[in-house]
Amino acid sequence: MKIVHNNIKITGKVQAVGFRETTKYFADQAGVKGFVRNEADGSVYIEVEAEQWVLESFVEWCNEGPDRAKVEGCEVTVSEELKHFKDFVILKK
């Protein structure tokens, strides 16, 4: 199957609620590769690569997030350029 690259911006109460750590756990379980990081504007930014059906499930999870999060928006952009990530990491700014 074809690997797809998504850029995801999640807004709402998504920092200081374990969002990045829970995202890494979910990504590792699903076989998603890429990264997650907090942004200065209070959002969370994620770049991921996997098969389309896997990313559909991943994006569904991103719309909910961990229990303490309150996701208000989940903007997904599909990119044609693959970055060939080797694993999923949490980036610190």
Key descriptive features of the protein:
single chain, 93 residues, alpha+beta, 2 helices
Task: Give a description of the structure.
It is built from 2 helices and 5 strands. β2 and β3 form a beta hairpin. The longest helix is centred in the middle third of the chain and has 13 residues, at 52-64. A 5-stranded mixed sheet has the order 4-1-3-2-5, with helices on one face. The protein has helices at residues 19-30, 52-64, and strands spanning 3-13, 33-38, 44-51, 70-79, 88-91. By secondary structure, the protein is an alpha+beta fold. The radius of gyration is 12 Å and the shape is globular. The model has no long low-confidence stretch (mean pLDDT 96). 27% of the residues lie in helices and 42% in strands.
